[in-house]
Amino acid sequence: MTKPKKVVLAYSGGLDTSIILRWLQVEKDCEVVTFTADIGQGEELEPARKKAELMGIKQIFIEDLKEEFVRDFVFPMFRANALYEGVYLLGTSIARPLIAKRLTEIAIETGADAIAHGATGKGNDQVRFELTAYALKPDIKVIAPWRLWDLNSRTKLIEYAEKHQIPIPKDKRGDAPYSTDANLLHISFEGKVLEDPWTEPHADMFRLTVSPEKAPDTPEYVEIEFAKGDAVAVNGVKLSPAKLLAKLNELGGKHGVGRLDLVENRYVGMKSRGVYETPGGTLLHVAHRAVESVTLDREAMHLKDELMPRYAKLIYTGYWFAPEREMLQAAIDQTQEWVNGTARLKLYKGSAMVAGRKSPNSLYRMDYVTFEEDSVYNQFDAEGFIKLNALRLRLGKMAREKK
């Protein structure tokens, strides 16, 4: 790889990416452009601008991507009811293609020939960032410092920061008890004290949700309205995608909904333990399935459920911009044309239970399912239906008994 001259860095303003910034300037002799995305992580981003300016950066991009994040990434994923390994709502996974997409676009806009990120060589994020970048700009160069440098301990990082006059907050001098990643969909906790899968997460760790034990003693009902598979209103109030998800986070978090403790299979081959809070996403997932239950044809629903694990794996492993994900998305989106209606959820002590669902396009017919007398369903027809479906079973049994 030829030496890059100008690099766009995914920059949080934190200690690690500030060290990467200086390392790119000193060790790689690169002009650095910084990009900081606001995807609802709940942090003030102006300090990142000031820190970049202090370190001599001339081109600084700080962008609010919350609406795009929910509208173009979270909502399409939730149309699929995507769950990785049956439980994980993919909060970190779905944010990476958006960040990498914008990172690559800024490289094109500024004439940079490389991008850089702070993902480690052990995790999934390096794959997600780089697959996206290569899909959108095949000739892009990628610099991943954690795979290149020898700053492989907290002590070495602190020493490097001190040597190069990088301000170190007091709370960053010691080892953090775990690493976190936050956005509007979720917050994750990994590493350090959580590496032992037998160790229960400390109660004070959680940020978005109260513990179920401390949640209100009175249930709360919430109604979520959908149009073509996407949530559009909460309790009758129309909201933009990002504001809607923020509202659901507030409601779910208040009742302790959306905590997950998972040992998952990383794409790079190892197992890792992650603890997640996804309050709004959990409500969205439960409500969407409830509306689908009355609007989707049986075989379409079953086929969609069969496709879901493959779709979820593609997102987890970084293939958002791959043709197979786009193909599956087109099929999934076609099923959502009639997913219109409202789900009513009952929130109580960590659970979100479906308490009702309705749709103007409902396939549920009370005149067919009633146990009372009806005039539309001839129960005698079931005898022929059963006999025809049993025919291969009967023939098989008879053939085996001949032997």
Question: Which SSEs are present, and which pair or pack?
Answer:
Elements: E1 6-10, H1 15-26, E2 31-38, H2 46-54, E3 60-64, H3 66-79, H4 96-110, E4 114-116, H5 125-136, E5 141-143, H6 154-163, E6 179-182, E7 187-190, E8 220-227, E9 230-234, E10 237-238, H7 241-254, E11 259-265, E12 271-277, H8 279-295, H9 298-316, H10 323-335, E13 341-348, E14 351-358, H11 366-369, H12 381-402
Write a structural description.
With 403 residues, the chain is of the alpha/beta class. The protein has three domains: 6-65 and 92-175, HUPs (Rossmann fold); 180-358, Argininosuccinate synthetase, chain A, domain 2 (Alpha-Beta Complex), CATH 3.90.1260; 374-402, no CATH class. It contains twelve helices and 14 strands. The protein has helices spanning 15-26, 46-54, 66-79, 96-110, 125-136, 154-163, 241-254, 279-295, 298-316, 323-335, 366-369, 381-402, and strands spanning 6-10, 31-38, 60-64, 114-116, 141-143, 179-182, 187-190, 220-227, 230-234, 237-238, 259-265, 271-277, 341-348, 351-358. The strands form three sheets. It has a five-stranded parallel beta sheet, sandwiched between helices. The protein is elongated and about 85 Å long. It starts with 5 loop residues before the first strand and ends with a helix. The relative contact order is 0.13.
Can I get a quick summary?
The chain is α/β, with parallel strands linked by helices. Helices cover 40% and strands 19% of the residues. It folds into three domains: 6-65 and 92-175, Rossmann fold (3-Layer(aba) Sandwich); 180-358, Argininosuccinate synthetase, chain A, domain 2 (Alpha-Beta Complex), CATH 3.90.1260.10; 374-402, no CATH class.
